[in-house]
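Throughout our pipeline, every protein is held as a single compact record rather than as scattered files. Such a record has a labelled line for the sequence and another for the backbone structure tokens. This encoding replaces a full spatial description with a residue-level series of whole-number codes. For reference, a complete record is included directly beneath this paragraph.
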Amino acid sequence: MSEYELSLLRQRGIAARASKAQRGEYRFMLPPGFCWSELGKIEIDPDEHVAGVVRRVFTKFRELGSARQVFLWLRAADIKMPVVLRNVQIYKLSWKAPAYHEYDPASSDGKMISLAKAAVHFGICVGSAKSLVLKGILPATQAIKGSQWLVPVDTLSSEAVRIAVQRVIERRPKNYIDYQYDKMIRLPGI
């Protein structure tokens, strides 16, 4: 397929979704605690346990006034929240303690840093660090697609990562140091 045909298909898909939304027929994955009724309306989940926790969160938000304060209260009260398990054929619900970022506690002691901080630690740019992640050399996770990458602290000192970072540094131009802290943009021929 040509690029034009792919673009046309994409435009048609977006138009179809907008048309369904205007008619009130567009359905999408809802957050935990909500579901679609038979009439196509969004309702609170009929599961009393799930509905009770969701109502409690909204009540606490009205009381405290911020999502962060509700988060801290949920952590302090050790209240588990419903989480929808995605990438499964059927709707599955799991109960977990609220967290800012999803990570595997078995792979590290829970200490995570952003990819940008890891890049500073290595002395390379963020783009090079991300390429190490995409190649599978530097382990990192995202809570959701598009959010920041998180790197377990204990992986920063692994031998494979150290060798890969050294290769990135060796690929730099020889005059890199001369221009590293230069704030002026140098245009060719000037």
Observations:
- The helical segments are 3-23, 48-64, 67-77, 115-122, 126-134, 159-170, 176-179.
- The mean pLDDT is 80.
- The longest helix spans residues 3-23.
